[in-house]
Design brief:
The chain is mainly beta and 78 residues long. The protein has strands at residues 24-27, 47-53, 57-62, 65-70, 74-76. The chain has a domain at 23-76: Ribosomal protein L21 (SH3 type barrels, Roll). Helices cover 0% and strands 33% of the residues. The chain has a 5-stranded antiparallel sheet, with no helix packed on it. The radius of gyration is 17 Å and the shape is elongated. The relative contact order is 0.26. The mean pLDDT is 79.
Length: 78
């Protein structure tokens, strides 16, 4: 029997893809599969800065106007 206590484990990818306060993100729609909670058409493909992070949503400032969006609709800007 082997002991895996001292071996290093793989870091989950989600820890590297987290959205933090002050990050720049792109607002993307989830396509036509999920229509509930989609951003308005004037905010699609816009870039904004994160000012608030909660468990299920992220607050973003776009054009000096604060908005809240789901985590699934955002993509980190590189």
């Amino acid at each position: 029997m082997t002991n895996t206590k001292g071996k290093k484990k793989v870091v989950p990818l989600a820890t590297h893809m987290r959205i933090y306060k002050g990050d720049t993100v792109d607002i993307k729609g989830m396509g036509t599969t999920v229509q509930k909670g989609m951003p308005h058409k004037c905010y699609h493909d816009k870039t904004g800065r994160v000012y608030n992070v909660t468990q299920h949503a992220v607050g973003i400032i776009v054009n000096k106007q604060p908005c809240c969006y789901s985590n699934q609709q955002l993509k980190l800007d590189k």
